[in-house]
Design a protein that fits this description.
Distance between the termini: 11 Å
Order of helices and strands: EHEHHHHEHEHHHEH
Strand content: 5-15%
Strand order of the largest sheet: 2-3-1-4-5
Shape: globular
Number of helices: 10
Helix content: 55-70%
CATH class of the largest domain: Alpha Beta
Largest sheet: 5 strands, parallel
CATH topology of the largest domain: Rossmann fold
Number of strands: 5
Length: 200
């Protein structure tokens, strides 16, 4: 029987991480989307209570749930406020990742993929048996971000500049996938690597 694997998947915006994550799912792995999970965590009573204590009840919308725009206004524009937000949400996200991973394995899953843009920064890589980064050339990424998000070249470049460079990911990852080519090429690389990981 193949060993159970926890695969950490990351990479800078526009490189193709989402394509690789979709392929892992197609191949039978359970994928935990940490961006989506982070949004879900905000709606839990525990997180809502802690955030209200930290930022005040003015972050709540009319329906009593967290208002993302109001939270962003409080959490990203005051010195040190984003660190406080991370201190509240990250432990809750990590706990949920562990719980979901355990549940998936108890159901017979061979591999769980943790899809996280901030895999290394958040410490989620410590849960992983193997880490993978999807990388692509800056030119390709710039074109994709502009097309995908409807941004100007300057806006897309600013978004890229806010992230770590390719060396950061490559130095910390066990494997790297080349997302500079076609989606089909990246999917094939993903398939071959997944097969190799399950056979190890």
């Amino acid at each position: 029987m193949s060993q159970q694997r926890i695969i950490g998947l990351t990479g800078p915006t526009g490189a193709g991480k989402s394509t690789a994550a979709q392929e892992f799912s197609t191949l039978g792995a359970k994928v935990i989307d940490c961006d989506k999970l982070g949004q879900e965590i905000l709606d839990t009573p525990d997180c809502r209570e802690q955030l209200c204590r930290a930022y005040g009840t003015e972050i709540l919308g009319p329906d009593g749930t967290i208002s993302r725009p109001k939270l962003a206004e409080k959490a990203f524009f005051a010195p040190g406020a984003s660190s406080r937000l991370n201190a509240i949400t990250h432990p809750l996200i990590m706990r949920e990742i562990q719980e979901r991973t355990s549940r998936f394995f108890s159901q017979g899953t061979s591999a769980v993929v943790i899809d996280a843009a901030l895999l290394f920064e958040s410490g989620a890589d410590t849960f992983c048996t193997v880490t993978i980064s999807v990388l692509a050339s800056p030119k390709i990424r710039l074109e994709r971000i502009m097309r995908r998000d409807g941004l100007t070249q300057e806006q897309a470049q600013a978004r890229m500049n806010a992230q770590k460079n390719a060396d950061y990911y490559a130095e910390r990852s066990d494997h790297c996938l080349d997302g500079s080519g076609t989606p089909a090429s990246l999917k094939e690389q993903t398939r071959l690597l997944y097969q190799k990981l399950l056979e190890e």
